[in-house]
Design a protein that fits this description.
Blueprint: E1 2-6, H1 15-24, E2 32-35, H2 39-47, E3 52-55
Antiparallel strand pairs: 1-2, 1-3
Helix pairs in contact: 1-2
Length: about 60
């Protein structure tokens, strides 16, 4: 599992980038969610890496 946080807004972004953010389960700014660490979710995070932040477990 990995924690993902939305740090930039999706408004004005490409439609497929908005879809990746929604597919990850992020709805609003600064929301933190926990998703499974699979190749598909990694690809979605890599696509929108300028809008999301992967939080390390401390």
């Amino acid at each position: 599992m990995m924690k993902v946080k939305l740090v930039r807004s999706t408004s004005g972004r490409l439609k497929n980038h908005q879809a990746c953010v929604r597919g990850l389960g992020l709805r609003r700014m600064h929301q933190v969610i926990e998703v499974e660490d699979t190749p598909s979710t990694r690809g979605m995070v890599n696509t929108v890496n300028y809008m999301v932040q992967v939080l390390e477990d401390a």
